[in-house]
Design goal:
Layout (H helix, E strand, L loop, with lengths): L7 H18 L4 E6 L4 H12 L5 E6 L8 H4 L3 E9 L3 H17 L3 E9 L6 E5 L13 H12 L5 H8 L3 H14 L7 E2 L6 E9 L1 H11 L5 E6 L6 E7 L2 H13 L4 E9 L7 E2 L4
Parallel strand pairs: 1-2, 1-3, 3-4, 4-5
Antiparallel strand pairs: 6-11, 7-9, 7-10, 8-9
């Protein structure tokens, strides 16, 4: 416990949020409240780190609804709720609401939330956010570019002027960004709606000799109804997903194109509805 500050995740947490949390508490008395079980180590480390610089910080544990809160320890203080990971946001909302309901009664000066990973972009302080923008390489394009791409993905015929109104840019600025993206990252092309053409899908798990797998990939990669092919490791070494208008279509492709391929040792077939994703496929003429 005495060496908690030496661990790498703790060091990243303190480096990511420490100074901002210290500014938040300022000269006011503070209380760090951790949510069990994931918040304990980050809260302990933060409390120890702050106590080396500022003495008037208390440390408490709390369930996310604040029902077991030690009210005496938070009275008249600034409060910081600490958790390890905001996943759905439920614990964040319950804990913050529980404390805010008691804020006036306990004369709590302020309430904020810190976490290591914030998947919902809710916390006041976090090391890493898992938001739609965060999963992209924004060194190659920015959030405005991402918005433009999103609108065009929904409606490829949307005008630059209309997109500009939505993202608060001029039509000229949108066009310039679009031209730049098209050179580096985008392809503009027509696609087919799956649900207008097919009613069923099949998924194949295939184990076979390398020569047979290569032959299957070459034979099926340009078939219109095939929307997914992947080489994998494990019990099987090839996955294929394809579409059909009826069961007969699916059975025909499995039996004639796959099962009869020399060198296929085992095959597992699952049949079901058309995929929830992707919703479109490219036309192959």
């Amino acid at each position: 416990m005495n060496d908690i500050l030496k661990y790498e995740p703790i060091q990243r947490f303190l480096k990511g949020v420490g100074e901002d949390v210290k500014k938040y508490f300022g000269k006011d008395p503070g209380c760090i409240v951790y949510l069990q079980p994931n918040g304990i180590w980050y809260a302990l480390a933060l409390h120890k780190w702050l106590s080396l610089q500022k003495k008037n910080i208390t440390l408490l544990a709390m369930q996310d609804d604040a029902a077991d809160l030690n009210e005496k320890e938070v009275r008249g203080r600034k409060v910081l709720v600490v958790d390890g990971d905001v996943v759905t946001g439920k614990a964040y909302k319950r804990s913050m609401e529980g404390l805010r309901q008691r804020k006036e009664k306990l004369k709590i000066k302020d309430v904020k939330f810190a976490t290591y990973i914030d998947r919902q972009d809710l916390a006041d302080f976090s090391v890493w956010k898992y938001t739609p923008e965060a999963v992209w390489q924004l060194d190659r394009f920015d959030a405005k570019d991402l918005q433009i791409i999103s609108f065009l993905a929904t409606d490829g015929r949307m005008s630059f002027a209309k997109i500009g109104q939505k993202v608060r840019l001029s039509a000229v600025s949108v066009k310039n960004r679009f031209d730049s993206l098209k050179e580096r990252l985008l392809r503009v092309r027509a696609v087919l709606n799956i649900d207008q053409l097919y009613t069923m899908a099949a998924h194949l798990e295939i184990e076979g000799e390398e020569k047979a797998i290569s032959a299957l990939v070459e034979k099926l990669e340009n078939r219109q109804e095939v929307y997914h092919i992947a080489r994998v490791t494990g019990q099987y070494n090839l996955l294929i997903s394809f579409l059909g208008r009826n069961l007969k279509d699916l059975e025909l492709l499995v039996e004639k194109e796959v099962r009869k391929t020399p060198g296929i040792n085992s095959l597992r077939v699952s049949i079901g509805e058309i995929p929830h994703f992707p919703k479109t496929i490219l036309p192959r003429l």
